[in-house]
Amino acid sequence: MPTTGTGESGVTAPNGHWAGTGLPEPPRTAGGVTLCGGCRALGACRLGVERERLDEGGVARFELSCPRSHEGGPDVAHGGWTAAVLDDCLGHLPLLHGVMSVTAELTVSFVKPVPVERPLELRVWADRREGSRWYIAGEMTLAPGGAVLARASGIWVTRDRSHYARHAKWLAGQVEATEGQ
Ligand SMILES: CCCCCCCCCCCCCCCC(=O)SCCNC(=O)CCNC(=O)[C@H](O)C(C)(C)COP(=O)(O)OP(=O)(O)OC[C@H]1O[C@@H](n2cnc3c(N)ncnc32)[C@H](O)[C@@H]1OP(=O)(O)O
């Protein structure tokens, strides 16, 4: 990935485009974590993803922990955090291949309570690809010991830069249709 260097925050400023998408590359942290729109100002993943990489076998590996701010029950993660971080990390698999995609379907199994502020790992792989559809699965484990805490699977649909413009046009049409009602 072409870059312009690493700033004080450790976030790498991109100067290239994703192959085939025409979209600007999103910034990455020093740990290789792609930052979505909401996390860019902070320069860190608010869900607690600290490192990400693609291994030799094509499996994406993440190091993370649940921030205390996402505590649900005492000392355990809110289920919404678990679902959100699985959605985010599963969707990073196409990103790590230079492909922009959006979540079309997501199924989450909450296997055991997830402790907050403990090291966790997440493995993410593609079960198969059919045209623009990626069928992706992943598993979250406790870092020491490897006990499975949660699993997820879903479908991601590849998009190009017209996705957001199309959305903006659709939304403008919705607003126009309701004006004067
Ligand atoms: C230039 C600036 C760049 C900046 C660039 C930075 C990038 C920096 C990224 C960092 C990384 C973050 C990545 C986050 C990734 C998630 O957070 S994903 C968020 C959650 N998921 C979504 O928002 C997806 C919402 N759903 C959809 O857009 C569509 O249902 C899908 C998944 C694309 C459908 O695809 P499909 O199965 O091929 O179906 P298709 O027949 O094309 O469309 C089905 C329906 O959706 C509609 N549709 C499809 N696409 C759209 C659209 N774009 N707008 C409106 N309606 C649409 C169709 O019109 C159709 O509507 P109906 O005719 O049924 O009324």
Number of helices: 2
From the 3D coordinates, which CATH architecture would you assign? Answer: Roll
CA radius of gyration is 18 Å
What's the CATH H-level homologous superfamily?
Hotdog Thioesterase
What spatial form do the alpha-carbon principal axes imply? Answer: globular
CATH topology: Thiol Ester Dehydrase, Chain A
Through-space gap between termini: 49 Å
Q: SS-based structural class?
A: alpha+beta
Percent in helix:
10-25%
Low-confidence stretches: 1-9
Main CATH class: Alpha Beta
Task: Estimate nothing, just give the exact number of structural domains.
Answer: 1
Biggest beta sheet summary: 6 strands, antiparallel
* Mean pLDDT value: 89
Question: What's the arrangement of secondary structure elements?
Answer:
Blueprint: E1 3-6, E2 12-14, E3 49-54, E4 60-64, H1 79-96, E5 101-110, E6 120-130, E7 133-142, E8 148-158, H2 162-178
This protein binds Palmitoyl-CoA.
Palmitoyl-CoA binds next to strand 5 and helix 2.
Would you write up a description of this structure?
InterPro entries: HotDog_dom_sf, THEM4/THEM5_acyl-CoA_thioest, Thioestr_dom. GO terms for molecular function: hydrolase activity. The chain has helices at residues 79-96, 162-178, and strands spanning 3-6, 12-14, 49-54, 60-64, 101-110, 120-130, 133-142, 148-158. The chain has a six-stranded antiparallel sheet with strand order 3-4-6-7-8-5, covered by helices on one side. Strands 1-2 form a two-stranded antiparallel sheet. Residues 1-9 have low confidence and may be disordered. The protein is of the alpha+beta class and 181 residues long. The protein has a single domain, classed as Thiol Ester Dehydrase, Chain A, CATH 3.10.129. Helices cover 19% and strands 33% of the residues.
